[in-house]
Amino acid sequence: QVQLVESGGGTVQAGGTLTLSCAASGRTFNMYALGWFRQAPDKEREFVATISWSAYNTYYADSVKGRFSTGRDDDANTMWLQMNNLGPEDTAVYYCAADRTPYRRDVALVGPEDLDWGQGTQVTVSS
């Protein structure tokens, strides 16, 4: 099991930029797909972005495509989510997640019980 800690959340005006980070510890990082999810008030948690174990593949939810980008630094055991042109609809608690099975490409295809989760970081976008 890996421990994940998100940082970088906060309040930003619409049109602004935030970069979230996720630091991992507890096991080897570089063999596992990673991803980001978010949960807005009174809504279910939804997929945001994922990066494959090799870092060759990234996938994004349609709602963030072209605005958000994700990456990983396996030497530092970190991943990030850069969020540009934020809007009020992006307000949510953002969670990073790591696959528990190695060598997969997309955490969106994995059930939540098969992922390790961070505690979440709040992102608030004011209009």
Mean pLDDT: 95
Distance between the termini: 39 Å
Return the structural class.
Answer: mainly beta
Shape descriptor reads globular
Largest sheet: 7 strands, mixed
Helix fraction, binned, reads under 10%
Helical stretch count?
A: 0
Runs in which pLDDT lies below 50 for 5 or more consecutive residues are none
| N to C succession of SSEs | EEEEEEEEEEE
Number of strands: 11
Q: Strand fraction band?
A: over 45%
Q: Report the C-alpha radius of gyration, rounded.
A: 13 Å
Name the features:
127 residues; mainly beta; seven-stranded mixed β-sheet; four-stranded antiparallel β-sheet; 11 strands; globular
In short:
With 127 residues, the chain is mainly beta. The protein contains no helices and eleven strands. The mean pLDDT is 95.
Question: Topology, please?
Answer:
Blueprint: E1 3-7, E2 10-13, E3 18-25, E4 34-39, E5 46-51, E6 58-60, E7 68-73, E8 78-83, E9 92-99, E10 115-117, E11 121-126
Parallel strand pairs: 2-11
Antiparallel strand pairs: 1-3, 3-8, 4-5, 4-9, 5-6, 7-8, 9-10, 9-11
Structural summary, described in words:
This protein has 127 residues and is mainly beta. Helices cover 0% and strands 48% of the residues. It contains no helices and eleven strands. It has strands at residues 3-7, 10-13, 18-25, 34-39, 46-51, 58-60, 68-73, 78-83, 92-99, 115-117, 121-126. Strands 2, 4, 5, 6, 9, 10 and 11 form a seven-stranded mixed β-sheet that branches. Strands 1-3-8-7 form a four-stranded antiparallel β-sheet, with no helix packed on it.
